[in-house]
Specification:
The structure is a single chain. The protein has helices at residues 9-17, 38-44, 48-51, 66-76, 127-130, 133-153, 161-181, and strands spanning 21-26, 33-36, 83-91, 97-108, 114-121. Strands 2-1-5-4-3 form a 5-stranded antiparallel beta sheet. The longest helix has 21 residues, at 133-153. By secondary structure, the chain is α+β, with helices and mostly antiparallel strands. It has a single domain (4-181), classed as Beta-Lactamase, CATH 3.30.450. Helix 1 (9-17) packs antiparallel against helix 6. The chain contains 7 helices and 5 strands.
Length: 182
């Protein structure tokens, strides 16, 4: 039984219209996707119909490291803070790989139970794409502020997202520097 209908219509509509690649998964069963927007579909090459109800693991492949997989698994299963940023090698529908910088935030109901995970994806495969991280993070921060406000009106809460976004630019700089040293 899907929890999709438990999300406020304004929340769902905002995600659908966002220019940031966004997805929402339920914390039931195997964290199936409940919402993906057009930007997510453009990034991954999959249609909404192809991904709804699936766990995002379908984006992983042979080159995705065990450490990357474990970090996402641990977050989904409650380890660490309520927000996280994770670099991971993902694969598009056509089989091409991309370096995804995933932001994830747990959405809690009024009783404090995690009901959903909101995720944003950012392709950082090339230097040009990495140079847009500040712009992407500004858009993401605006989207999170709006979604947090909409969610709070309906009893969903995201904790500490803004600080994590601010810290992301520094993390991105370190990852870019590490790429140049290789």
């Amino acid at each position: 039984m899907s929890l999709y209908s438990a999300l406020p219509t304004t929340f769902r509509d905002y995600i659908a219209q966002s220019g940031v690649a966004l997805a929402v998964s339920e914390m039931a069963q195997d964290a199936p996707l409940s919402i993906v927007n057009r930007s997510f579909c453009e990034l991954t090459g999959y249609s909404q119909d192809e991904v709804m109800g699936k766990n995002c693991r379908f984006l992983q492949g042979t080159g995705t490291s065990g450490a990357q997989r474990q970090a996402l698994h641990d977050f989904v299963h409650g380890a660490g803070d309520d927000n996280g940023r994770f670099p991971i090698l993902n694969y598009r529908k056509d089989g091409t790989s991309f370096h995804n910088f995933v932001f994830m935030s747990r959405l809690r109901d009024p009783e404090g139970k995690v009901r959903f995970i909101l995720a944003s994806q950012f392709d950082m495969s090339s230097a040009m794409q990495r140079s847009r991280i500040a712009q992407n993070d500004e858009q993401l921060a605006n989207a999170l502020t709006d979604l947090d406000q909409i969610g709070r009106e309906f009893g969903l809460a995201m904790m500490g997202s803004a600080q994590l976004i601010a810290d992301s630019v520094a993390m991105m700089a370190r990852l870019s520097f590490d790429d140049k040293r290789r």
